[in-house]
Amino acid sequence: MNIRKIQAFEILDSRGNPSIMTEVILSNGIKGTASVPSGASTGTNEAKELRDGDERYNGLGVHRAICNIKKEIAPCLKALNTSDLFKVDSAMIELDGTNDKSRLGANAMLSVSLATARANAASYGMPLFRYLGGVSAVTMPVPMMNILNGGAHASNNVDIQEFMIAPIGAESFSEAIRMCSEIYKALGKLLKKRGISCGVGDEGGFAPSLQSDEEALELICQAIENAQYSTNEVKIALDAAASEWQESSGNYTLKKSRKTFSTQELISYWEDLCKKYPIYSIEDALGENDWNGWRKLTSSLGTRIQLVGDDLFVTNRKYLEKGFEMNAANAILIKYNQIGTLSETIDTIRTARHKGYKTIISHRSGETEDVCIADLCVALNAGQIKSGAPCRSDRTAKYNRLLRIEAFLGENSVYTLS
Ligand code: PGA
Ligand code: ZN
């Protein structure tokens, strides 16, 4: 199959900012459509989105990226057989010619990459997860649901960006979803009872103003209990997004509470929290450039706690391999718009799993209704997914897609923290 035509449109994401929706039409007339997300607490080494920088949408328009899809990417890909996605993506990478995809735009390239994969899957009459993963794609992920938002995702006084619950003891994915939703509701009731009124943050979690990050942990433990679950079956995961706190001196200043920590003090802070609360995972516990700190943190907590590199690895095999060398982290967050093509994303996931690093497929804080990450997660048996709270359609769309995949797989589906 070849590409007959590529169409691309400027759409809105969940924050009301422009994003790209791309439709790839193959020579057999079959279409694939995909749209791309956008982050707020982005890592420095991420592939770059191309934004217009003019007066429309405060500079965030994507007309230039769409023009690149139509005028450069479409003609370049026309002669290629789309069934080899690695070749399609490599052709775009070569055409772009930069290290960070800044010329054509990672947003433009990823939308074409995903839409091509979707069109290929549709040509074979297969769901995307089956097309990408074959018959061995059977693992339903443990959801890490972000039920309390802080940091750059909420205008409250909480410094840790994400407080998540993960029902590792659930019997199935659908049970896990039910447990998360019940705990989310219990947390809402608890906040109301304590007179803490709040809205929700970018990822659908409550965004209350609290005395401290520890108060958030206390509230979540209480909500788990109020929903009649135990902290043996439902664990807590944090995303500190600590790159946001790092200063040029190497110290960390928490922007909201204005506390300052050295690397060692911050490591001790995490050790302490892990002793007191049922935390099983911490993401970006240290900044993206603090490699020596990451090595120390991993030797201290790495056998007990999942230490996830998000800004640290930016879904890029090069930084992941540096992590292997330095014994930094033991898990990687996967966001395909950090690297800019689906095939590079798949390569990074396989590289991580080969080394025994855990993989968590993730949404971005700015999302669309696209659900490709749900399929990707099952396709690669990634094991865990972050798609925000059980609230806001941009978040629940991914969980709902997974519920349908689980039903499709029936007895063949597996739910375990692998
Ligand atoms: P972002 O946040 O999409 O704003 O980067 C998500 C995360 O840090 O995991
Ligand atoms: Zn993160």
CATH homology-level superfamily of the largest domain = Enolase-like C-terminal domain
Overall body shape: globular
CATH topology of the largest domain: TIM Barrel
Low-confidence stretches: none
Helix content: 25-40%
Give the percentage of residues in beta strands: 15-25%
- By helix and strand content, what is the structural category? alpha/beta
Reading off the top of the CATH hierarchy, the class of the largest domain is best stated as: Alpha Beta
CATH architectural type of the largest domain: Alpha-Beta Barrel
SSE string:
EEEHHHHEEEHHEEEHEHEHEHHEHEHE
Mean pLDDT: 97
Which ligands occur here?
A: 2-phosphoglycolic acid, zinc ion
Number of separate domains: 2
What does this structure look like?
The chain has 418 residues and is of the alpha/beta class. The protein folds into 2 domains: 3-125, Enolase-like, N-terminal domain (Enolase-like, domain 1, 2-Layer Sandwich), CATH 3.30.390; 134-415, Alpha-Beta Barrel (TIM Barrel), CATH 3.20.20.120. Helices cover 39% and strands 17% of the residues. It contains 13 helices and 15 strands. The chain has helices at 63-77, 85-96, 106-123, 128-133, 173-193, 213-226, 263-276, 291-301, 317-326, 336-339, 342-354, 372-379, 393-409; strands at 3-12, 18-26, 31-35, 139-140, 142-149, 162-166, 235-239, 252-253, 260-261, 279-283, 306-309, 331-334, 358-362, 383-386, 414-415. The strands form 4 sheets. It has an 8-stranded mixed barrel, surrounded by 5 helices. A 3-stranded antiparallel sheet has the order 1-2-3. Strand 1 (3-12) and strand 2 form a beta hairpin. The radius of gyration is 21 Å and the shape is globular. It starts with a strand and ends with a strand. The chain binds 2-phosphoglycolic acid and zinc ion. 2-phosphoglycolic acid binds next to loops.
